## 1
Amino acid sequence: MRAGELLGERYRLVGELGRGGFGVVWEAYDQRIGRQVAVKTLRHQHGSRDAATDLARFAREMEVLARVSHPSVVLIFDQGEAAEGEGSYSYLVMELLNGLTLKQVLLEQRPALPRALSWARQLCAALGAAHAADVIHRDVKPENIMFTGPDQQLLKVLDFGIAQIGDNQDGFTTEGAVIGSAPYLAPERWRGEPGTVRSDLYSVGCVLFELFTGARPFTSTSTYGLMAQHLDDPPGRPQALPAELADLLLDLLAKEPADRPADAAEVGRRLERAADTIRDLRRRADAAFLAAGEGKAAEALDQLRPLIEQFALAFGPGDGRTVRTCHDFAVLLTRVGALDQAYCLLDELLPHATAALGEGHPDVEDIQRRLARTPTPERPCPPGLLAALLGTVNRTSS
C-alpha cells in the first residue's frame, strides 16, 4: 500500500500520518464526497495470535466510534476491507485532524490555566458521552487527545482500540490482564480489575495534573516503580494551584475508586467552579489594593502576596495582569514604609516587564515612573525578590 493508490474504490491515499503496531494511518481524499479524511489500515496476517488480537481491537474501535457521538470524540465515516495482491486489509475512515496531540503541546510549554481548564472540560464532556454509551476508554493519556487545528481551541479523544463495552466479555482482554499506559493507569487496573468510569477518571486526574502543573503525579522511570507509586504513594499536592483545583486533582487520584468523583459530569462542574475562581482573581487583587486606601496597607499586602503566584500560574509570569499585580504589590510596600523592598522589586520588575510587554507599553512606563520616584537603597538589592513572588508552578508537597 502506497501513496496514490485507491482504497475501496473511493479513498485516494495521500501520505502516511502515523505508523505503529496497530497498522498505518493515512491521509486520504474521499473522491465520492470530496473531502480529506484519515484512514487507519490494518493488514491481515493469518495464523498469528497477535494479529487476531489486533483485528479484535480494530473491530472494537469501529464498534465504539459507531455508538459514541460527541463533538470531542473523533468521528467515524466508513469502514471496510480491501484486497492487495494475495493479502487483505481492514480499514477505518475517520475525520482528519490537523492539530497536535496534547502530548506534543505539553512538550512545548504548559498552557495558561484558563485554556487548560477549557481543554479539561472538553475532555470530561467527551468521556461523559462515552460512559453514557456504556464505553470505558481505558487508555486516557495525552497521546490519545488531539486538537482539531493549529489554534488548539477544540480537542478530540482518540484511540478506542482497547475500550471496554459493557461487561467486556471479549477475546483480547482477559480477566486479570493489565492493559493501558503505565503513567496513567489506575491502581485497580494494575491489579487486573475491569475498567470502570472511576478508573477512567483516575487517568483523567493524571492527565490534568500534567496539564495544570507541567509534571506527572508519578515519575518513576520503570514500569515496576510506576506500579508501586500508583498503588501506594499519595500524590503531592500542587501548592501553586487554586485550592479547588488542587483538591479536585487529589480526589481524582484517590487510591480507592469510591473516593473519586462519581462521574465525568461532576468533574466538569468542579472544573467550571475553578474557572470562575481564576476569572475572579483580578477582582480579588483590586479589592486588596483598595483596602490599602482605607488604612489597611499591611493587611492588603498579605492578601495580594499569594494572588501574584496565582496570576503567574493562571496567565503566565509575563502576562500584563501578572505584571500589574506585581507593580501594585510594590506600591503597597511603599505605603507601609518598606521603601528598599519596593525599589528592589521594581528594579527587578522593570526588565521583566519590558521583555514581556515591550518598551513603551503603558504598564512598563508606569513602573519606570514609580521606580524614579522611589529612593535608591544604600545597600545593593538582594536577588530573587520577583522570583519569590511569582513562585514555582510545579511545586508540590505531600
## 2
Amino acid sequence: MQETTDLVELESVEKSISIIDLIFTGSLAGQIIIGVLFLLLIVAIYIYFERLFAIKEASRVDANFMNQIKDHVSKGKIDSAQLLCAQANTPVSRLIIKGISRIGKPLEDINTAIENAGRLEIYGLEKNVSVLATISGAAPMIGFLGTVIGMILSIFEIANSGGQIDIKLLADGLYTAMTTTVGGLIVGIIAYIAYNHLVVKTNKVVYQMEANSVEFLDHLNEPV
C-alpha cells in the first residue's frame, strides 16, 4: 500500500514539471537557442508597441481640420493654413502643408509634391515593421534548428550507448528538440500576428492620408 502511494506521488511530481524546468533540463545548445528566441520575442514586443503607439498618434486628425484648411485657402490666408498644419503635426497635416507651399503652381506639380511627401510618411510609419516579418519567419526556423540538434544528440547517445542507453542523456536531447520547436513557433506566431496588425493599422493611416490629399486637391481644382 505504501509503495502504491509513493508511485502516485512520484507520478504527480513528474507531471508537474514546468517549462522552465524543461528548458534547464535540456542541453546547453537548447538553452542557447531558447535564449536567442527569448531575445527575439522581446524585440518583437518592443517594436510592436512602439509602432502601435506611433501609428495611433499619427492617425489622430481633427474632424474639422480639412474644413479649416479649405476655409483658410479660399480666403487666401496661406500663412494661417500653414500654421494650422504645423500645430497639428500629423502625417496628414505634413502632406497638406507640402501642397499649400506649392499653391500657385500647376496642379500636377502640387500632386507630385504631395505624393513624394506621402512616400516619406509611409516609410516613417513602416519603420522597423519589416523586422517583425523577419522574426516571424526566422523564429520557427531557429526552433527547428534546435529540434535537429536535439535529435542529433539523442541519436548520438543511442549510437554510443553500447547496448545500455542512458535515459537521462537521451531525454536531454528530446527536451532540446521539443522545447526549441515550441519556443520557435510561439515567437513566430506572436511576431506574425503583431506584424499583420501593424500593417492593417498602417493601411488605415495611408488611406486617411490619401483621402485628405484628394480632398485638398479637389478644393484647389474647384472653379473660383
## 3
Amino acid sequence: MLNTTLQDAEALVEGESVEKTLSIIELITTGGTAGIIIIAILGILFIAAIYIYFERIFAIKEASKVDSNFMNQIRDYVSDGKIDSAQNLCSTANSPVSRLISKGISRIGKPLDDINTAIENAGRLEIYGLEKNVSVLATISGAAPMIGFLGTVIGMILSIFEIANSGGSIDIKTLADGLYTAMTTTVGGLIVGIIAYIAYNHLVVKTNKVVYQMEANSLEFLDLLNEPI
C-alpha cells in the first residue's frame, strides 16, 4: 500500500515536471492535412499582401515627389508664352501632377471647360494607376478571416466526427488534432486579415494625399489660365 502511494506520488511529480511545449511549426502540422492546406493558403495571401503593400507604398511615395518650385516655373513659362519649355519641364518631372499639367498645357487655346475636362480625364487615369492592386488588399483583408473560419468549421467537424465514431471511448489526441485545426486556422486568418486591412487603409490615406496634391495643382493651373493678360 505504501509502495503504491509512493509510486503514485512519483508519477504525479514526474507529470507536473514535464511541460508540454509547442512550436509554431508543430502547431501547424498538428492540425492535420486540412489545417496545413488552409494555413498554406493564408501564407500565400500574406505574402501577396506584403508584396502589394510595399510595391504600392514605394510607387505612391515616388508619385508624391513634386518640386515646390514646379508650378512657379510653369507659371513663368506660360505667362511668357514658352509652351514648349513648359512641356519639357513636365516631361522632366514625370509625376502624376506634371502629367496633368502637361495635358492642360497641350490644350491651351481651347475653352477652359475643355481644358478642365481633359485634366479630369487624365486625372482618372493617374488615380487608377495609383490604386493598382490596392483592391486586392481589400479582398485579402475580407477573405483571409473567412478562410480561417472555414478551417475552424472543418476542425470542429473532424472533432465531432471522431466523437460520434469513438464508440464511447474518446481519443483525446485525435480530438485535439481537430481542435488544433480549428484554432490555428482561425488565428492565422485573423492575423492575415488584420495586417491586410491596416495596409489597405494606409495605402488609401497615402493615395488620397497624392490625389489632393493633383487637384490643388490642377486648380492652380486653371486659375493661371483664367488670369487676365
## 4
Amino acid sequence: MYKSRAYLPRAAKSLNPDPSRKSRKLCTEEQLFLSFAKTIPEDEDVTSDLPKFVVFDHDMPPADYMVKCIQDNECPDVIVTVNGRMFPCHRLVLSIYSKRMLKLLAGDVNNIVFEKEDLTPKAFSDAYQWMISTRGELNTSDMVDILRAAYFLDIPELLEACWITLDSPVIDELSAFRIMYEARAATNMPEVFDKLAGRLNRATLPAASTREFLSISEVQICSILKSSTLAVNSEMELLYCALMWLSHCWPQRRSSTNVVLKHIRFGYLPPTMLSKFKTKERNQVGHFGEILEEFSKSPDINQLVRDGLFDSSLIIAVYNDPNVVEENVEFKQVKLTDPRCWIRDHRCEYHRNVTTLCPNMRYVTPDQFEKYLMFLSRSRLEYPDYEIEEESDSDWEKKREIKKLMLLKSVVGMDADLDRQINLIKQKRSDRNQDPKTQIVQA
C-alpha cells in the first residue's frame, strides 16, 4: 500500500535544520543587495508628532448651522400659546434667556399656555425675536411690549438692554411720556414708571395739557409726583395736575385721593393754599372742592398741613432775608423736602423770578392754571425757558444732531470721522444763523 509523508512534519523538519550543517554561501546578487540594504539609513517615525485624531473642516461651523436652524424656526420642540395664538419655539433658547420659562419647561413639557393681560402675543413675539436675533436690536416703537414681556418672562438680559435704551438720547422727554401712556395698563413695571417720570423734565406741563395725561394709571401719576426733576413754575401746578387727574373719573377715583395727594410737597405750596385744606375756603377752589373735602378726612392731613405751613413760611422768610437762617439755630436743623426743577416761563400769567431754593410761592387760581394749560396745548409744545440756561432752537437742534451721530457710531460702528461730521454740523448751523433769509422765516 502506498504511503505518503505528512506535509507539516516535513515543513517542521525543514524549519529546524541540523546545526552541524554548513550554510551555503550567498550568491553574488544576494551579497550586493545585502550590502546596499545596510547603506540605507533608518527612517524616523514621522507620525510621532501628529495628533491622535484627524480634524475635518465643516462647510458651515456647527454653531452657525444651529443658529441658522433656530432663526429659520426648523425643528421646534415646544409650543407656547399666548391668549389663543400659538408660537412654535425652541426649548433651549427659552430656557437660556427666561428664568420663568426655565421653571415651566422642567421635565417633559412641550406645551405652555399663557392667558394673562400682562403678556400679549405681540410682546412675546418681540421678545422671542430678540432672543434668536444675531445683534439683539430693540425697536423703540415697540418698547412697551418688549418691557412687559421682559418683566413677565423674567429675562434679565432683555431688561438690561431696555434700561440702556431708556437712558439713551433716543428717548427724549415727550417720548418718555408716550411710552408711559402706552404702558398705562401694565401693573408690574413701577421701576420703569419712575425712570420715565424722571425723564419728563421740561415736558411735564406740555404733557399735562393733553388728554392722555388724564388716562394714565394711579401708579404712573404717583411716579410723576414723586420725581424731583419736573420742570414747573410752582408746586401749585402739580397740585392742580393731581386734582385734574382725580376729577377726570370722579368718584371712581375717590379711593386714590390720599394715595395721590400725599406726594404733593406741601412745603412749597403758598400758605394761602394750605389754609384751604382745613377751612371752608376749600369750596372756593373751583370744581376741586369735593376732592379736597375727601382729602381733609385723611388722618395725616393735619400733620401735612402743619409741616407745610412751617416749611413754606421758612422758605418765604429765607428768600426775603437769607440771614434768618444764620440767626436762628432751629432753622438750621430743619431739612426741607427736595425742590423741583423750578423754571420761569415768561408766557405764564403768574410768572415770577425764581431761584433754585425758592420757587414761585404765589397763590395760583384754577382758572389761571387752566388758561396756561390751554395756551400750552394750542402751542407747538415749546419748552418753557430756564433761568440759568437758555438755548436757542438752533443750539438745541445742533446738540440733538450731535447726540444722534454719536449714538449711530456706538451702535452701528460708523467708520467716518466723528469730529469731521460734528464740525460740518456746527458750520451748517452757524451759516444758517447768519443767513438773513433764515432769520426772517424764523421770525
